[in-house]
Amino acid sequence: MSPLEALVALNMLPRIGPVRVRRLLEAFGDPAAILKAPEELLRRVDGIGNETAGIIRAWQDHADPVAEIREAKERGISIVTQQDEEYPAPLREAYDPPLLLYVWGKIEPRDRHAIGVVGSRRATHYGTQATRKLSFQLAQSGFTILSGLARGIDTAAHEAAIAANGRTIAVIGSGLAKLYPPENLALAEKTASGYGAVVSEFPLHTAPDKQTFPMRNRIVAAWSRALLVVECPAWSGSLITANLASEYGRPIFAVPGPIDKPSSAGCHQLIRDGATLVADASHILDDLGELPFAQSSQSVEAPEAIPDLPADEAKVLAALDSSESGIDPIIQRCGLPAHEVTAILMKLEMRRLVRAFPGFRFARR
Hints:
Blueprint: H1 3-12, H2 17-28, H3 31-36, H4 39-43, H5 50-57, H6 65-74, E1 77-81, H7 89-92, E2 100-105, E3 114-118, H8 125-140, E4 144-147, H9 153-163, E5 168-171, H10 185-195, E6 196-200, H11 212-223, E7 226-229, H12 237-247, E8 252-254, H13 265-272, E9 276-277, H14 281-288, H15 297-301, H16 311-318, E10 325-326, H17 327-334, H18 338-350, E11 354-357, E12 361-364
Parallel strand pairs: 3-4, 3-7, 4-5, 5-6, 7-8, 8-9
Antiparallel strand pairs: 1-2, 2-6, 10-12, 11-12
Helix pairs in contact: 1-6, 8-9, 9-10, 11-12, 16-17, 16-18
């Protein structure tokens, strides 16, 4: 049995979980060795009682890893373990990181710069518009938008990231063969087709339930560099995600709403508890400091060293130096149409690569 097959089998077993598997790996050193271990030795591991030991010994009654891996491949889904480079680095630092991830699409190194966006499934027009605006701006600035593919705020966040031609990751609370909610299948397909990935830690045919969604939320909290809560009532699961993110040391941002609307009560509570009030993406960008496209002053001085900067944006940046320049000389130096240069300068300003001055003059930061 290969290590991947053994991990898939362990992940498919009921009532085991990543914390217990980690203890078992510390005791036996190898996932295949866990499945071969006698019950007596299994019971000696902290947290492994008679029931759990019995489940592990009878693992073939619960799991068919070969069939699971074959179906994943047929569906175009990759299975990523903690030993793979594609596994998100922030998740490895969590207390209970997923044993593995089913990935439909592709996780890229730049997705470590992710901002979680969460909120109510019953989003108001105000919440939807705020989500679209902020997610679009953050995606244009180079951040990956991370959310849960749920109705409401999550859907608006993913759609805005795609509209910005940015990156988005959807972490779902079901198996990828039981995608939920089903009406977001087209959005999931769009995401996986080149804009990011749909991700789950659950076996392919796991149906969503009350336990899978909190487990999904911990992934969003741990993976995110920061968490933005756009709109949620006082009893929302988004507050649980915010609490988890806070425990992981992630900064929390919240969008205020009308004081007489219960739909914003959760965000107001977060702000009272110390979350940063957000009315524009610049509030988040200023607090986070370094951006994905401008990680150091050295990278700003060398446009070719800035990862994933489109060619036309690199041309405009190369046409600037630290002294102020009018728009006409910039257009002449980079050889692009005026309307394109103007739009690119606005993007570069948002990414903190360019500084704007009165009189439509610009300089490289």
